[in-house]
Amino acid sequence: MTDSLAELLGGRRGAVDATVPPLAFAAVWLLSDAIGWAIAAALVAAAVVAGIRVSRGGKVTAVAGSMTAVVVGALVVLYTGRAEDFFLIQLLSNIGSALAWAVSVLIRWPLLGVVVGLLLGQRFRWRRDPALVRAYGRASWVWVLLQYTLRTAVFGALWWLGDVAALAMARVALSWPLVALVIAVSAAVLRKSLPDDHPGLRHPRVPEAAEN
């Protein structure tokens, strides 16, 4: 299950690629103190990464999403004139993700279950298994607290301080290394939350009445 989630998230390469434009932006801004040049560097870096990923068979939707995030960040900076606002999209997206994942658990539609169910080709069959719903709910809290809330706290504090260099470093540190940790911890929580006799994620235990 861990490998499946990692693949779904784009893997190590996708996460590393996503850090290149922010690093290019921060490096050029720190060296030149020119927002225009920093934005140009980020856009060029994003275009190069996108070209490489597409040439290697990467998903066009994923590439387009990454490019869109960089373009939006650039537009925000052009509007505000504040270099730290290039990272504002990251802060807002993590706030939104934390809220969405938390609400999904509260309404018994944990997003980790939705993601894994679609990945395994089960669609929403897992929702008819109370043990899986409970396990996915507990594991989803790992994503809320260990990933999205942590990122929100770190990005929020650094953005408030206007520390562009630290924001770029945090963008790297809180990408794949954190995602790998979250996947491992949530997988462990899933396994521990299921009864010993449960057949596993690939085999939801659906009551006979629900099957008919």
Explain this structure:
The protein is mostly helical and 212 residues long. The chain has one domain (2-211). It is 77% helix and 0% strand. It contains ten helices and no strands. The chain starts with a helix and ends with a helix. The relative contact order is 0.13. The model has no long low-confidence stretch (mean pLDDT 87).
| Distinct helical segment count | 10
Helix content range: over 70%
* Beta-strand content bin: under 5%
Structural class: mainly alpha
Domain count, please report it.
Answer: 1
Give the biggest beta sheet. none
| Helix/strand order | HHHHHHHHHH
Overall pLDDT confidence: 87
Q: Radius of gyration, rounded?
A: 20 Å
Q: State the distance separating the first and last CA atoms.
A: 29 Å
Question: Can you count the beta strands?
Answer: 0
State the shape.
elongated
Work out the oligomeric state of the chains in this entry: single chain
Poorly predicted runs: none
List the helices and strands and how they pair.
Layout: H1 2-8, H2 11-32, H3 35-55, H4 60-80, H5 88-106, H6 111-119, H7 130-161, H8 164-173, H9 176-193, H10 208-211
What key phrases describe this protein's structure?
212 residues, mainly alpha, 10 helices, 0% strand, elongated, transmembrane, UCP010219, membrane
In short:
The chain has 212 residues and is an all-alpha fold.
